Amino acid sequence: MGRTYIFDCEKCGYRGRVAGGLAEGLELRAQTLLCVECHSLHDAVIALKVPVSADHGLSAPHLEDVINPLQVNDRGPLRWESFGLACPVSPDHKVQEWRHPGKCPLCGFFLEPSALPFREWN
C-alpha cells in the first residue's frame, strides 16, 4: 500500500504532499521527484498495470488519475508498463529523484514529514 505524507518546511512554509521516495501499490509504483524548473516536489507514476491489449509506449498518467479512478471495469489480463521519471507539469522539465530526508525545493532546509499519512492508496 502506498502512502502520501505532508512534508512541511519550518523555514519558508513550503508544503508538499508526496510519498517521500519510492511508493508501491497493488497496481502502480510512484517515485517522488524534485522538479528543478517548478521548484516543487511531485509523485510521478513510474510503473502501472495496464491491459495486455494496451499500446506500448503510453505516456505516464498523473498519480491522481490512477489512485482516484472514476470507474473500475474488468480490464482482463494485465501487464506492467514502465515510465521514465518525468514532471507531471511538463515532461520537458529537468527532474531528479527525491527521498526523505531531503531538502526543501525552495530554500534548501530539510523537510519534515507528517507523523501520519495524508492518504493511503493501493
* SSE sequence, one letter per element: EEEEEHEEEE
Q: What's the number of helices? A: 1
* Integer-rounded radius of gyration: 15 Å
In percent, how much strand structure appears in the residues? Answer: 35-45%
Residue-averaged pLDDT: 91
Q: How would you sum up the major sheet?
A: 5 strands, antiparallel
**Helicity level:** under 10%
Distance between the termini: 5 Å
Shape: globular
* Class from helix and strand fractions: mainly beta
Uncertain runs: none
Protein topology:
Blueprint: E1 2-8, E2 15-18, E3 22-24, E4 28-35, E5 40-51, H1 63-67, E6 78-82, E7 95-97, E8 112-113, E9 119-121
Antiparallel strand pairs: 1-2, 1-8, 1-9, 3-4, 4-5, 4-7, 5-6
Describe this entry's structure for a reader.
The chain is mostly beta strands and 122 residues long. The protein has one domain. The protein is built from 1 helix and 9 strands; from the N terminus they run βββββαββββ. The protein has one helix at residues 63-67; strands at 2-8, 15-18, 22-24, 28-35, 40-51, 78-82, 95-97, 112-113, 119-121. The strands form 2 sheets. Strands 3, 4, 5, 6 and 7 form a 5-stranded antiparallel β-sheet that branches. Strand 4 (28-35) and strand 5 form a beta hairpin. The protein is globular, with a radius of gyration of 15 Å.
